[in-house]
């Protein structure tokens, strides 16, 4: 079932808004985490777990708490740290929506939407819908 004109306008507005979101753009352009960070995190979590176990066996609560803090800190360091960039990250445009100096993501999104519309039109013409 095709979208109404109102739904198409809302969808286009959402696409433009997502294209203007700088934090989303940065998050989507990051590559995988570096192996050093992953290995360091695994070792750090194991060390923290060891400290927790020593704290439990010796019944020293502060040692157990310290071990937990080490585990949580290393895990957060690995998860929230920067990822290895697979390509140079483009900056999001600073101007208002509709400005002439748009960044690549809205254009790529528009190309994607144009391809989807063309596919939809072809299917409708061939009677598949």
From TrEMBL:
Low complexity: bias regions: 85-107
Keywords, in A-Z order: Membrane, Transmembrane, Transmembrane helix
Coiled coil: none
Membrane-spanning residues: 36-54, 60-80
Region ranges (Disordered): 85-129
Ranges of Basic and acidic residues composition bias in the record: 108-129
Protein name: DUF3040 domain-containing protein
Organism (species): Demequina muriae
């Amino acid at each position: 079932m095709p979208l109404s004109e109102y739904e198409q306008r809302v969808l286009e507005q959402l696409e433009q808004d997502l294209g203007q979101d700088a934090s989303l753009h940065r998050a989507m352009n990051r590559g995988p985490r570096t192996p050093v960070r992953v290995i360091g995190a695994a070792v750090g979590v194991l060390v923290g777990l060891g400290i927790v176990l020593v704290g439990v066996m010796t019944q020293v609560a502060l040692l157990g708490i310290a071990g937990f803090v080490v585990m949580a800190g290393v895990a957060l360091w690995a998860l929230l740290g920067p990822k290895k960039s697979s390509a140079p990250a483009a900056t999001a445009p600073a101007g208002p929506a509709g400005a002439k100096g748009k960044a690549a993501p809205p254009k790529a999104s528009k190309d994607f939407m144009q391809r989807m519309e063309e596919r939809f039109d072809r299917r409708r013409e061939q009677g598949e819908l």
